[in-house]
Specification:
single chain; 203 residues; alpha+beta; 36% strand
Length: 203
């Protein structure tokens, strides 16, 4: 990913939090001689001294057949993003787009059935926390769990992280505050989230 120095995020804790909070990613490799992407949740964790992503895709997905152990893959995580109108500035300029994104490269390892069940438990436990009556994989019937045979689970050992925060860092304080003010008047969640991130980024 192209990242000018001004927009680089090199804060490990911030990046890890982003990966945990924006878990729905696009897994990319080369399938049938062309780039292929699958939208799927990926679970981020630290294991010993390694950073790991784990997840799964349907075995009916052509990408599942193409994935090989030790293959390098790319996972793209998107955060909030929004249009920035140059009418908000005190000078003439072009409009732009503010956004937060992280690209993760790594080596993939395909999991066996027992490992797949453990991976499913981690993923389900994470997202069931907020539920009134959390579902647990170990409580599902044998019939329901047969569906696990229809997925290909994997772990990705992270080899490189590229993190970008494009939040109008090139604007002076007056125009920066003007952008935030206009975004805060919106009812759009992306606008409000970018406004919050801009506030945090220049405190």
């Amino acid at each position: 990913m192209y990242i000018p120095d001004l927009y680089k995020n090199e804060n490990p804790k911030e990046i890890e939090q982003f990966l945990q909070e924006n878990a729905f990613a696009i897994l990319i490799n080369t399938t049938n001689d062309k780039p292929w992407g699958t939208h799927t949740p990926l679970f981020f964790e630290k294991v010993d001294d390694k950073l790991i992503l784990s997840g799964h895709i349907s075995r009916e997905n052509p990408q599942a057949e193409s994935l090989q152990n030790e293959e390098e893959v790319l996972a793209i995580f998107n955060g909030p993003h929004t249009y920035i109108s140059s009418s908000w500035y005190d000078h003439e300029n072009v409009p732009t787009w503010n956004y937060i994104a992280v690209h993760v490269y790594g080596k993939i390892r395909l999991l066996d059935y027992e490992e797949t069940i453990l991976s499913l438990k981690k993923l389900v436990d994470k997202f069931e926390k907020k539920q009134e009556n959390p579902l647990r994989v170990e409580n599902l019937s044998e019939k329901t769990m047969r569906q696990a045979k229809g997925i290909l689970a994997f772990e990705i050992t992270i080899t490189e992280i590229q993190a970008k925060k494009k939040l109008s860092q090139n604007r002076d304080d007056k125009n920066y505050k003007s952008i935030i003010s206009h975004l805060e008047k919106s009812n759009d969640n992306n606008d409000l989230e970018i406004a919050k991130e801009m506030q945090k980024n220049r405190q």
